[in-house]
């Protein structure tokens, strides 16, 4: 039952905020929605659209608080970047002293925020990638225990499949988790039945994940998104995450 009281109220307000933010970003990127095939294909392979679709789904079902972690993390970087690029410059304009020393717009606080974002961006994206793996485990177990719909793990599995192709952080998280599980199941104390079940599951996951995706013709499926490459190469302080808002 869809509820707008208590904890569920704040949960849905948080997701409505995320939906509006993603909607604005997508509108700026793609313009007015169209129904032609080229537009739909390009939109569905966009990270913002993927996160928007998942946000709409999470908002419409019984609350699962764990699913908010990626959105809260992205929002923190958005807030810091918006504060540095828009709020602080309006409060502390750039100036030049009598001795010729220039004071940048935003002052020292702006520099501090810029340095913190640069230093912690990769760490935050790795955290989000592992969180998304944990979220999948949660909704999969929840489906088996009838705590959430079977649609949840199926939809999220497809979402993670897209993230695996488009995000080096997600690939690294999955590879690390698989390495740890391989070690656990290869240990002599692991029951043969568990080992066999694990191998069957890994074979199924590998087959599903290795299905060819038509991201861009001529572009390797394992490549990093251009936005991430640009941000890394230029040393930009604005996070190259899927929900980056253009504040200028």
From TrEMBL:
Compositionally biased tracts (Polar residues): 217-237
Span list, region Disordered: 217-248
Bilayer topology term: Multi-pass membrane protein
Ranges annotated as spanning the membrane: 12-30, 51-72, 135-157
Primary localization class, coarse: membrane
Keyword entries, A-Z: Membrane, Transmembrane, Transmembrane helix
InterPro entries: PER33/POM33_regulator, TMEM33/Pom33
The keyword Transmembrane helix appears for this protein: yes
Keyword Hydrolase: no
GO BP term (any one): endoplasmic reticulum tubular network organization
Cellular component GO terms, alphabetical: endoplasmic reticulum; membrane
Pfam families in the record: TMEM33_Pom33
Annotated compartments: Membrane
Record family assignment: Belongs to the PER33/POM33 family.
Protein name: Transmembrane nucleoporin
Organism: Malassezia equina
